[in-house]
Input
Amino acid sequence: MRPLTDEETKTMFEKLSKYIGENIKLLVDRPDGVYCFRLHNDRVYYMSEKILKLATNVARDKLVSVGTCFGKFTKTGKFRLHITALDFLAPYAKFKVWVKPGTEQSFLYGNHVLKSGLGRITENTNQYQGVVVYSMADVPLGFGVAAKTTQECRRMDPMSIVVFHQADVGEFIRNEDTLT
Amino acid sequence: MKRLYIGGLSHTITQKDLRDRFGKFGTVEDVELRTRNDDDGVPYKTFGYINISISDNDFKKCMTVLNKSKWKGGTLQIEPAKESLLQRLDQERQARTQESPSKPQRDSKEKVLDSLRSAGVENFHMKAAVPGTEVPGHKEWVVSKFGRVLPVLNLRCGRGSKTRSMKYDPSKHSHNIKRLEAEPDTTSIAQLTWTLPGGDDDISKKRRGEFPPTQPWRPKRIRTEPDPTRYQNPSVLTLLSSLLFFTDGEQTNGLADGHTAEEEIHSMSQGALGHRGEEDILEVVRADFLVRSRKFNKGGEGEEEEEYDSADTDELLAANKPPPSSLREHAGKRSLQASSGGDRKRRSLPLFQSQSSAEEDEDDTDNFKQSDPKADTSQQPQTALSGFKPSSAADSEDKNGAVESDHDEDGDEESDHDEDGEVESDHDKEGDVESDHDEDGDEESDHDEEGDIESDGDEDSDYDAIFSNCTRLEISLADLQRLAKDADTTTPSMPQPPGGTATGVPSPAPKKGTTPEEILASLLEEDSCDDEKDKRKKKKKKNRGSMSALLPAFQGTSSLLGEEEGGGTTRRSQDLAEPCSVSQSAGAIPEPQKEEVPPASTQKNKGCNISMTNDDDDDSSSSEEEVPPASTQKIKGCNISMTNDDDDDSSSSEEELPPASTQKIKGCNVSVTKDDEDSSSSEEEVPPASTQKIKGCNVSVTKDDEDSSSSEEEEEEGSSGSSEEEEEDDEEEQEVAGGPDRVLDPERQRLDNKKRLQAVVQRHQETQNQRSLIQGALASLDTSAATPGQHIVFSSDEEEESDDAAATANCKAPLKEKDLKKVAGSKLFEDEEDEGEGDDDRFLIKPQFEGRAGRKLMAIQSGFGIDDRFRMDARFAESDEEADEEEGEAADEVMKSGGEEEECLEEERKMNLSILQSVLNDNPQLNAKLKPSSKTHTFRDVQALHYDPSRQEHAVFEDKMEDAAKEGKASRKRKKVAELPEVSKEIYYDVCEELKGVFGGGAPGGPGDSAAPQEAPCWDRQEEAPEKTKEQEETKEEQSAFKFSFFQEETQTSKETEYRVEAIKEPRVSWQLESGFHDSSSDDDDDAAAAVGVDDEEKVQQSSCDPAEESMMSSNRELFFYYPEDSRLTEGPRSFCRSTHLKENDWEEKRNALIQDCRNTHKKARRKCTKKR
Output
C-alpha cells in the first residue's frame, strides 16, 4: 500500500472529475478529518487517516481491502471506477440521470440505458459526460457516460442508447469476488 | 417360371448382364430394369425384375450363390416377386375365356313383353281399361290408375315362423300412383346452377368458395380493468412477468391477471419501441435538482414515492402502501395498532384528516390488494378475540361488516359525519370488490404475500397504517393519562377489570366513561341516545364493529407495554407509554364503580373503557355487553361528537334521556355541559377524574392541553394555566358536590364526592409539585432541553399541533380561541394529548444530550428526526465520549509520535489538491478557497445595493466616493467642455491661419501656444501619473476581487476625461477663446456663427483682448465660478457686440451671403428628406 504517484493521482482525478468535477476537492479536503487515497494491488482505496494507520498493522499480502475502493488501474495505466465509489460520487455528482422503474432492472443487469427508459436528466449534460444513474425514487443505481447531450436526448429514437453503462450496484452481486 | 426381384444393382448394368448372370440357373425369359433418379436426374437406385424358368433347387442355389453377393459395385438382393400385372391380367382373361360361355338371360323378359304386347299393352299402358282389370293372359298383371299395367306383387313379410305372404295389388293402391309425365323437362348440365350471384360480403364470398387469406392466430386477450395501483410498482410487474415466463405462460393462478401482466409487458415493450408520448415524459432537470434519496426508509413519504417506488420486496410494498389503505385495516386491528404504536399515525394523520371522503374512496380502491389481506387478517384477530369476550356481542360480523365498523369509527374520529356515511358505503362496495378480487388468483397470491407478512406478526406495518387514521386514540390517551394519574394517586393498586379491558384499552378514550359515574351516565345516555343512533346506520355498524375492534386491542396492549418499556423520547414511545397509563387508569377507575355500581354497570364501564381504547367509543361500545355497552358507546360517541364539534348528538341525548336513573341524568348533564362548553356543569356530577376528562372533551381543544399538561406536569408552558384550571375544576366539583339534587342515590353521590375531593386535592398537590419541579428544571435548563423535544414533536408533520400547543401554552387565551379550536375538533385534541403525553419524556432533561458529546448526539438525533430506530440513547453518548477520548488520545499520540506522518499526509493532500487543480484547469481563484468564485457567480441586485461602512468590501465605495467628490469639479468641467475640443479646434484652427496671415505669422500667440501645450502635459502628467497608477491598482484590485460598483467605472472614466480636459485646458487658456461661453455651456452654433460672421472682428478683438484676457484668465484660473466684478462678465458681452461698425455694403453682402447659405442648406435638407422618402 502506497500513496499514489502524481501521474496516478492525475489519472484518477481526471476520471473522477468527469463525474463530480471540482467536488473532488471535497473528498480530498474534508473538514471531518484527513482522508487519503492509497494504492494497493493496483486498486485505489479511499480511507481515513485512522484506518490508514490501522491498516499498517496488516501484512501487505494479506491485506485484501481497506477503506473504500474507488477503482483500479488497468494494466494500460487507465483508471477504472468501481461501483463501490458510488457512495462518494452520488452526492457530489454534477450530472444525473434518472431511469424509469421498468428500466432499473435492465440497468442493474449491466445494460445501457435507452431513451425509452430515461425518466429524467440533468440539463446541459454534454456528450460523454460522466453521469450518476438514479432510480426514480432517487436511489443511486450506478454511473455511466452520457451518450448524447440533453438536447439530443429529447429527440432521440426511443431505442437508442442514452447512457452507456459503466457500473451499477448489481455488480455487488455479479462481481462479488472481484469487488473489494 | 418365377419372377425375381433383383435389387442393389449398379447403374451400369444392362439387361444382358442380368440375363447372362441368371442364365446359369435357368432360362431367363424377360428382364425388366428400373432405375430411380432423384430430382437432378442422377440415378440412385437400380433394380430389376426377371422372369426365369427355374427349378426350386436351382432357385435355392441361385439364392445362395447370388444373394448378397457383390456384383459390379453393388450388393445383389434377390427376392421372389409377384407376377407382373400384365401376366396376371392375361391369366385372368384366359381363365375367363376358358370358363363356360354365358347363357342368354333376356328370354323371359322379352317373352313377357311380347305376351303383354300381344295382349294389347303398349309400353305398359293399356288404354281404355278400367283400373283393376287383369291383363288378359297375364294373371299377374293388372291395370291400375292411368291405365298403367303393373304387376301384382307377392310380398313376404315377417320372419321365421311368422312369415306370410302378402299380395300387393297395385290397382287397389292406385292413389299411390302418379301420372308419369310424358316429357320430363330435362335441364342440360350446362344449365345447372354453376354460379351463385352474390355481393361482396363475406358470406357470399364464402359461398362462392372464396375465403379470406388466413391470418396468424392471435391469442385472445382478456381485458381486465387496468389497476393502476396494482402495478404501480414496476418491480412487481417484472416479477410477475418473470413468473409468467417461467411457467411458460401456464398460469395456474388467475389467468386474467397473467394476461393483464402480459398486456402490460406488451405495452411496455411497445412503449420502448417508441410512443411519441414517452418523449414528453422525459424530464430535464436543473443541475441543482435536489435528490431525496433513501428516504423511503422513513416511510409515509406520500404518494409520489409510491409511484416511483422501485422496491421489490413485499416488505416494502407492505410498508409503503398501508397508510392509504389504512381505513380498512383500522377495522379489526385498531387496538392492535394502538398497542404497536404506529409511527405512521402521525404522518398519515394530517393527510387523512385533510382528505375528503372522495379521496378516501380513491385510496380504498387503489389499495385493494392490501386491503384484502388486511381484512382477512383483521378477521382473524376478531375471531380470536371474540373467544375472549364473555358477552361476545360478537355477532360474528362479516369481514365487510367489521371493516365497515372500523371505518365508521375512523370517520367519527375525523369528526366528519357526512364523510363517515360515504366512507361506509364505499367500504361496503369495497367489501364486495374484495370478494371478487379473492377470486382472482394472482391478486390472492399477491395478497397472500402481504397477508403472510401480516400474519407472521409483522403486523406492525398494518398497525401503523391503522394507526395513521386513528385520531381519537391520541385524544383519549391524554385523558387516560390524567385518569391514570388520578387513579394512581387515589388508588394506587387497582385490580384491572375483567376481560382484560384495561389491557386492551390502549387508547381508551376515557374522556367521560372512565370514572364510574361518568361511565354510568354515559351508559344511560347511550340508552337514551340509542334510538337516535340506531337511526344512524353508521353508528349501528360501528357498534357491531366495535367488537372486532376491541378484541385486537388485547394483544396490542401487551405489545404496547413492551414498547413502553422500550419507548423513550420519541413520540411513539410516548404514545405507547400513555396507553399503559391508560390501562392503569382503567384499572383504577373500576374500583369506585365496583363499590357503588352494580356489576352490570361495571361491565358497562369496562365496555366504555374498551370502547375508549378502541378510540371512538361510539361504535366500539357494543362489543362487550350488547345492549348497555352499545348505549355507553353511544354516549361516548355523543361526548366525542360534542367535543369534536357537533352539539346535535348531545342535544338529542338530552331529549331522549329517560329520567329513570341518576347515571343517565349525569350523562345527560355531562353531555349538555359539553355542548354548552360549560365544563363546570359537566363536572358537577362527575367524579373529578371525569370532570377533568370532560373538560378535556368540552374545552377540549384549548383546555385539554392545559389540563393534560398540568396533570402530567409535562408541559412547561401550561403548568401555571393548568393549575389554575384544575383549581377551578376542583371548585366546580365541590360546588357540584354541594348541590347534589340531581343524584338519585345520595349515598353514592356522597361517596363520589368524597372521592372526587380527595382526587382533586391529590391532583392539586401533584400539580403543584410538578409545577415546582418544572420550574426548577426550567430554571436550570432554560430552553435548551425543550428544543430537542419540541423538535422531535413537531418535526414530523403536524404544524397545526405545534400551533395549538403554542396556543395552549398561553393558557390565558380567550374563549373565542377555544371555540375555534373546538371547531378544529378531534385533530387538535389528539395532538394536544399526544404532546401532553409526550411531554413527560420530552421535557425531561436528557443526560445524554448534555455536554459536548451530548451536542453531537443532538445533532445526530436531529438528523434522524423522531425515528424511533435511531433514537440516541445514553449509550451512544458514552460511546461518543469514548470515541472522543480515543480520538483525543490518538491525536495526542499522533502529535507526539506521528507528527511526521501527519505532515506527510498534509503534504500529500496538498499535492493532491494541486494536481486536482491542474486537472481541473482551475483558475487560481478556486485555489483560494472558492470565495472569489462564489462572488463572481453571485448576482447582485443593483437596487438592493447599500453602502455599509462597516463592511470591508464597501471600502471600495468609500474610496470611490472621495474620488467622485474630487472629480466633481472635473467631471462638471468635462461635461461643459465635452463638445468643445472638436469645435473649438476647427474654429480655432481657421482663426489661427487667418491670424497668421493678418498678423504675419501670429508670432505672439504661436510660441505661447506651443509652449503652453508642451508644458501642460508635463504638469498634467505629473499630476495624473500617480493618479493613474492608483487607478490601475484599484482597477486591478477590483478585477481580482470582482466587485460590482457603479462608482468605479464612473471614476475611471471621469478620470480619463479629466485628464483630457486638462490637457485641452492649457491651449484654451492660452488662447482665451470664449472660455466663458464654453464654460457656460455655449452652443456650437454660436461659435460657428461667430466664426462665420465675426471672423475678422474676432481677430481684431482677440488681438485687442489678448493681454486683458490673459490676465483675466490667470486670475480666473483658481476661480471657476463667476464672481461680481468678474472680468468675464464685463468683457464677455463684448464678444457679442461688434466693436467696429460694418459698412452698409459689407453688411448687405454679408447678409445676402448668409441668406444664400440658408437657402442652400434648406434645399439640401429638403432633398435629403425627399430622397429618404
Observations:
- Chain A has two domains: 2-88, 93-174.
- Chain A has seven helices and eleven strands.
